[in-house]
Amino acid sequence: MGNGNALKVLAVVVLLVVSNYISWNIGKSGGLGTSGGAALPAPGPIPGGVRGFGGTVENVSDSGFTLRLSAYDPFASQGPSLRNVAVNTETVLERLIQKDNATIQKEQIAFMEKISAGGAAPAGGQGSATGGENQSAPLTPPEPFIRERISLNDIKAGDMVLVSAGEDIATAKQFTATRVSLQPSVSLPGTASSPTAPAAQPN
Length: 203
Fold this sequence. Notes:
The structure is a single chain. The protein has about 200 residues and is an alpha+beta fold. It folds into 2 domains: about 1-35 and about 50-100 and about 150-185, CATH 2.40.50.320; about 100-145, no CATH class. The protein has 2 helices and 8 strands, in the order H-E-E-E-E-H-E-E-E-E. Strands 5-4-8-6-1-2-3-7 form an 8-stranded mixed β-sheet. A hairpin with a 3-residue loop joins strand 1 and strand 2. The protein is globular and about 50 Å long. It starts with a helix and ends in a 21-residue tail after the last strand.
């Protein structure tokens, strides 16, 4: 039972970190842009409003689903805890698949080598890594997961998702999502059935 609770707490923490980053990042740029790496703001009104939430799917319909916001989300108190999320043909529905550690490390090394070689600055940076003028598109850091397109039928009650919108949804009871990301399951080492320790031998 303890392992199950630990999994839920860890999943909520991961979900909130990513959700709050998306909300701040989209609000700062006024759209689905990238950030220059500034720290997350304290809870409260943010430029552009809150445009992303994380939570648990309560139920699914033919046109969307009901999202229960996490009680730990600092922006959840601004509106109802249950939100009706609608999806349409323009909504991006995706599953986030965690990459293995070896792949993540390999991509990070390759990314740093491109910067060191004088490539374009990371997204949000100024100029190239060598300080010269570079007109090429900024480099984007590798993501720790793969994005796989899915349909609404792949989303079930109990799933944890991140939802993004093109407007301020801080207090909106219902809104249309621009992107819905199904979160990868979180597992902890040793949560599977462990071998039973041998009984103590009598002296």
